[in-house]
Specification:
Length: 170
């Protein structure tokens, strides 16, 4: 960038100002705004807060459809985006899915009964749990196979070293 005088002459070159970019970790973590307000909340922090306030969430009971509207009605200062994230973490947890799989009722925030979960919703919870445990079993099986292969390689190397010592020229 060049600075021009009133006469239109170039006086001296200057470098453009560069503002540092935020790293991904800085944008994903809680940051403190410039006006010294408290740090922003994460979805996990909000979920912990909701678990302390509402026994229905703490006990992983199946939640009523539209539970987010009930939370917003009781606490209008909560960010809808954070609430969606917190409820997503909660409803995808193994404990919640196990509860939903066998449940006959859904519950409101106050603990009162709401509608029944449909057979399709129960089946989806069961399918999700099955997929999770199947993946976990495959990972465990692969880990065991890798450990067995490593042990076999170690034994093979020990035998080769013994043979090398036996037939080595001294």
């Amino acid at each position: 960038m060049l600075i021009k005088s009133n006469a239109g002459l170039n006086l001296m070159p200057t470098a453009p100002s560069i503002t540092p970019l935020k790293t991904l970790s800085q944008t994903m973590t809680t940051t403190e705004p410039e006006n010294n307000a408290p740090a922003t909340q994460t979805a996990r922090m909000l979920l912990k807060q909701l678990q302390q306030q509402f026994p229905v969430i703490r006990d992983c009971l199946p939640l009523a459809i539209g539970i987010d509207k009930q939370v917003i009605a009781q606490q209008p200062d909560i960010s809808r985006k954070l609430l969606r994230g917190a409820l997503g973490i909660h409803t995808k947890s193994l404990r919640y899915l196990k509860s939903l799989q066998i449940a006959n009722k859904r519950f409101n925030l106050d603990g009162s009964e709401a509608s029944e979960p449909s057979a399709e919703q129960r089946a989806l919870a069961a399918q999700t749990l099955h997929a999770h445990f199947k993946k976990q079993a495959e990972v465990h099986k692969a880990k065991l196979a890798a450990e067995a292969e490593e042990a076999a390689a170690r034994v093979r190397n020990e035998k080769l070293n013994e043979l090398a010592k036996k037939f080595a020229r001294e």
